[in-house]
Amino acid sequence: MEQELARGEEERQEGLIEFYDSFKEMFEFFCKNTTIHGTIRLVCSDSNRMKTAFWTLLLLASFGMLYWQFALMFSQYLAYPVVLTMSMHSEPKMFPAITICNLDPYRFELVSEHLVQLDRMAEESITFLYGINTSARLFHMNDRNIHVQGLANLSRSGFKLSQNFSLLRMSDLRSGKKHSSVGFRLCNSTGGNCFYKTYSSGMDAILEWYRFHYMNIMSQLPVIVNISQHEEHIEDMVYSCQYDGEPCRPSDYVHFHHPVFGSCYTFNSKGTDPFWTATKPGIPYGLSLILRAEQKDHIPLLSTVAGVKVMIHNHNQTPFLEHEGFDIRPGIATTIGIQQDEVNRLGGNYGKCTTNGDDVDVKLLYNNSYTLQACLHSCFQHIMVQECGCGYYYYPLPAGAEYCDYNKQPAWGHCFYQLYNRLRNHHLNCFDQCPKPCRESLYKVSAGTAKWPSAKSQDWVRQALRHQNGYNSTSNRKDIAKVTIFYQQLNYQAVNESPLLSENLLLSSMGSQWSLWFGSSVLSVVEMFELLVDTLVLSLLFCYQRLRAKKTLRVSPTIPSVSLALENYRVVQEEPGKGEEGARPSGMRDSTGELQLQPLPQRCPEVLLDGFGCTKEEDVGQE
């Protein structure tokens, strides 16, 4: 019999789903056949409870450490960290866009009368603050104005310069020392909320005060002013232009006017002309310019700098000269070496960036490609139009808006400076709405300067410029400048973001931890999944059997039977056909016809069971 049972156990084969007789049998089968190390000790050591408990605790501790490591890995993965990888590339590339401005803004005839009044107000303020009379030196008027056809003089339109923003000197005590500052007072529309826009430097205060009035005057001009008939020719500013030893062509530059930095030219603005392809590094193969760098005193208080503003930037990008760029001194030869860096950001979960600005909520007010500065300026202008009711003069306008004018909006200055402070302190949501570009080129600049022309060469240099370019200045080396911009080397550095923990690396790390704590592989995970499936199936089968058994007991008729626990009771059934004399039963039937069991003497209590009767043995014997 035992041999047959052993043979049947050997012949038993593993099926698709194991139907075990008990959970214990299923667990023993798993521990004996799994590839997870240590589980077999739970079965082999079942006779030694101490060893079984030790290995159970060891396996549970290993599971805890494993999933603790898994939690750390997933928390690091869901943080989406990045690592910067740097690579060097060497190949011919396009020369960057170069913007130059003469720091000499136009004095439009439409607003010339009010600009004269503003100069007089500035003269009076400087005299009041410092006791200096500057009328003969600072405010020498030039007769050249730009006339805009079809528009009457501004004096007929009713515009008046406001006297409510006078410059004041304020004193305060700090650390026992007396400090003074200069500024002007700004109030809201009701006049109840006021503050002073102050500067520790009187020069900075005068420049900001002048710009504030200047913006109100310039807001009277139409949004689009056609100055094509009056713009300066490039020869009036650029005496010589060469790139890679070849003279520049008229198609190599575009002209625009900046309200502060004057007449500006951008070379290689589109970046599509093969002429501007850089094939060699070095000074002889760069862009060489000889520029007029004198100050015409058109609007002197907009800037205290004499020279030329230069900015190096990407193609199809708006040059923000107030934030970037550098100044070229007159009488100086400046060599500027550039080194390009390319930054590629991942975006998505790894950081906020945009490819071309189409997915940005802010509507750009500039027609060029997306940049962070263009988005910030557009965002600020939209908020200012919404909260102040007008737009900042130095930024483009949204559709249907107008530039600020304190004759129409007396409190716009108070609103503007409050908003600008919030933007500078990152309290506006513009920095949240304006992501960085996912790909951008950055230019590192290194410059060197020398006097030019030298004392011995300045005579023949000026004579050559006079005959070739109409140069007619008699000053001593203080009105021209030379600048050379070149690639230091053609190889550039690419900085790329890559995930610190990718999906492949995450799975590899999880597999390493699994092998460390259990010495198993991914197939062991499948075995554990199989164990869970078998446990679920076995539980469902046991539940189904139990429910079926209860249903069978509820439907089937009553079958006389005696439990082993009732071994002290005897069952006597009535024999059909016998009367009371023939066979005296030990049990009596009740009104329902069921048999009453009588307990045996001193062996069982009196109990009533359906269909059974308990009688005393001595009574049965007598019968």
TrEMBL record:
The keyword Transmembrane helix applies. The keyword Transmembrane applies. It is found in: Cell membrane. It holds the Pfam family ASC. It catalyses: Na(+)(in) = Na(+)(out). Keywords: Cell membrane, Ion channel, Ion transport, Membrane, Sodium, Sodium channel, Sodium transport, Transmembrane, Transmembrane helix, Transport. One of its GO terms (cellular component) is plasma membrane. Residues 575-601 are annotated as: Disordered. GO terms for molecular function: ligand-gated sodium channel activity. The chain crosses the membrane at residues 57-80. This is Sodium channel epithelial 1 subunit delta. The gene is SCNN1D.
